Each structure stands twice: as structure tokens, then as C-alpha cells.
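This follows on from our talk about sequence and fold. Go ahead and set the record down below:
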Amino acid sequence: MHALEVKNLSKHFGHVKAVDNASFIVPEGSIFGLIGRNGAGKTTTIRMMMNIYLPDSGEVILRGTTVGQEFRNKVGYLPEERGLYKKMKVLDLLMFFAEIKGKTGDTVKEKAFEYLEKFSLLDRKNSKIEDLSKGNQQKIQFIATVLHDPEFIILDEPFAGLDPINTEILKDIILQLKKAGKVIIFSTHLMDFAERMCDHIAMIDNGKIILSGSLKEIKERHGQRNISLKYDGDISFLDGQPIIEKVTDFGHATGIRVKEPGHSQELLKLLIKNNVIVKSFNADEISLQEIFIEHAGIEEKEVTKSEVPYV
């Protein structure tokens, strides 16, 4: 049985169709990425999953049963628009949010101390939220999301506003939570994060799910006709070659899509014949960013790349 199934969800806001018949499956014990550009429909989908928005049609099924209030009790939710009580002290706020979810006592407080120490915030436990930087407020919001030990963790753009060091810390905590058996769903427009962390994805564009499933299988399926090339020389001769479908410059490498899976060896022969020095020729390798560009039908420059180091 799947942990969660989103089935034919649709949502209108006036004349705008924010989500259009979206369906995907979240497996048990996985990190699931809902990926797409800003404004693609990610947050609206998540809010319907959380029962914050009622869908115009469709349903969300939790382990075989339509989602209701019991799901809200099992989930930790980090919204895109952060919301903290600015006048409260850090530890008081964390204990308050845990109590809302039914968790109190010394065990919860000890767990709060552990998370604060991981994020180098233990010395700020008695500081007011308003006195923290935006990045530190983001870390407090995350701790409040997971402190009550939820079964499901839903994170809407969780890495926004974090520096590289704290991004790495957050990534490690998310992976630890996965090992503990949590189901983690996060949305992002940063393809690097999704590619390095997710087991399964759903790709959304203009409110429609354009691709979903196991990330490994998706990459294998799409990589059969793609080559990542690093070279010295002139490859302009590839324009108009009958075996070539597309050539894309990604800066650090060039992506070449051939028309048939067997054409990759013919391409290599062409490069050598035309005196191109081949530094790297990786067949069947394709990035999630390239897959998104292929399916969303947009130029590369419109896809936001991660502004922090690889995770």
C-alpha cells in the first residue's frame, strides 16, 4: 500500500486553474519531491493535501482512506510563507507548537535542545524570535515542524534563505528522518536538491503533472538518448547531422540528444573523425534539469539552478 495518493486534484481561483487534474503516488519510507517552476502549482497542491484548501475535484488518499483531520495530526508542515510568533522566546515557541500537536514534557524539551544545538542556536533559546536573523527564524520553523515526531513531514521550499552550511545540516537531518521511517515530501524549484535527495518525484508545470515516478527509473528511461560531453574543439559540424536531435550548452558541459539509442557510438566516431578532443563522453547520463526542460518545453535559462553547493 502507498503512503499517500493524490488522485485527480483540481483547483480554480477565479478564471485561473492553479492545479489541473493532478495525480501522483508517494511510497512509504521515501523522500518525495514535488518539483517545478515558481507558480507551477506546487504550493496549491500541498495545501490541498493538507486540507487547507478544499479541491474543486479529486481526493487525497492516506493509506487507503480519504484524508481528513487525522492526517493533520500525523503531519509536520513547513509552509512556504513562514509564520512564527515574533514576540515569543525560541524555546517557549517550540514547546508551544509541540503542545499543539499533543507533545509535552522533558523528553520534548530535550529533543528541542538537540535540534537547537545541531543548528548552533542553543545559546539563543531565550531570545525573542524577532531578534533572530531570517535564516535563524527559518531553522526555528523547521524545528517546530519536526519536534513532535510526525509520521509525515511536508516541507514547502525548505532550503529557502539558508546558507550552505545550514543547508547541509538540514539535508542531513532530513536524511536521518527518512532512515527513521518518516515519509518526507518537499517541494522545490531547485532541481539540484531534488536530484540528490529524492527517491520519487512528481514534476508539475502550469498546474499539470507532466512526469511522475521513481527518479532512478525516470533518469534511466530518459538517458538512453542523451550524452553529456566535455571537449576541446569545434562541434558546429553537428548541426544538421541526421543522428542529432538537439545540442544544448550547459556551460560546464554540452548536452547532446541523439535520435535513437544506438546513435551514441556513431556520435563518438563523428567527434573523433572531426578532430574533436573528447575529455568526457557520458552516454545514458541526464540531469533532472535536462529532463524538466525537455518536458516543460522551456529554455534552460528559465529553470532556476541551486545557488548553494551540491547536497
